[in-house]
Amino acid sequence: MRSPVFPIEWGQLAPLRLRARTVAEGVYAGPHRSVRKGAGVEFGGQRSYVPGDDLRFIDRRALLRHDKLMVREFETETDRALWLCVDATASMAYKSDKAPGAKYAYAALLAAALSRVALATGDPVGLGFVGGDGVRPQSASAGREAFDRVVGTLESARATGDANVDAGAVERAVAPIARKARRGSVIVFFSDLLDLPSVARGDLVPLGTGGRTLIVVQVLDPAEVDLPFEGSVRLRSLEGDVVVEADVDEVREAYKERLAELTRRWTRDVEAQGGRLVRAVTTDDATHITRSIVRAIAEAHA
Prior knowledge:
- With 302 residues, the chain is α/β, with parallel strands linked by helices.
- It folds into two domains: 5-36 and 78-301, Rossmann fold (3-Layer(aba) Sandwich); 41-76, no CATH class.
- It is built from nine helices and twelve strands.
- It has helices spanning 16-29, 60-66, 103-120, 146-156, 169-180, 199-204, 222-226, 248-272, 286-301, and strands at 5-6, 41-48, 70-76, 82-88, 125-131, 138-141, 159-160, 186-191, 213-220, 232-236, 243-247, 276-281.
- The longest helix is centred in the last third of the chain and has 25 residues, at 248-272.
- It is elongated and about 85 Å long.
């Protein structure tokens, strides 16, 4: 049976292109202007100056010491691609009354803003999805049109799929990224992490090996964080068709502890490979969260 398809409620997070540009400009204005720390190159030696060489790379010390124009040469140290992987399964379509938009919409805003920052510094951006309908993975590319391609693909998605039932969904999404992302690449995975199977960590965490950096961004709706309902409620999951009836006041603390334990397990496994986990709620300021992601990337590269 085909999984139900849910349209994305963009709400206050639309239009994505404009919102992402605004968030990216806020990141530019802050202390973290690049998605990675360092220039991505290493010193490769010197050679004699040739007319037409970039004057910025003239070695002033060599000029003073030897009275001779020498140019510093650099070699590419690592691949600088940014790979974005967005969970577009059914649970990411959830939006409570107080949320500005669906979880997927918020994750897409963060992803689009990061791509804008990366492309502005010359880093190519690739895009993949777990689940989703109407989406097509994109190979890493740079240039003026890359941002529009990323935004257009993110906007076209509809949420569908149950990764808890389809245990291979995560592996299928990350396998192409694992093959293409070389040493130095940054991989950012956006998901609520709530309905992923236990094997998902085993599929994702290895992305942080081989000199690559993995950042996991957990995106939650405020209702999922606080469980603000009162009295006896009947809740139905968007994935797995699970129905739960409970007195919220009695189960709230146990629910919060299980949620915290889930986040701790992911944090432990991701950090064991040198990566970072960033937790976000859809009511959080997107510029602040994007800066936190950039900071996490810089710390992982330090």
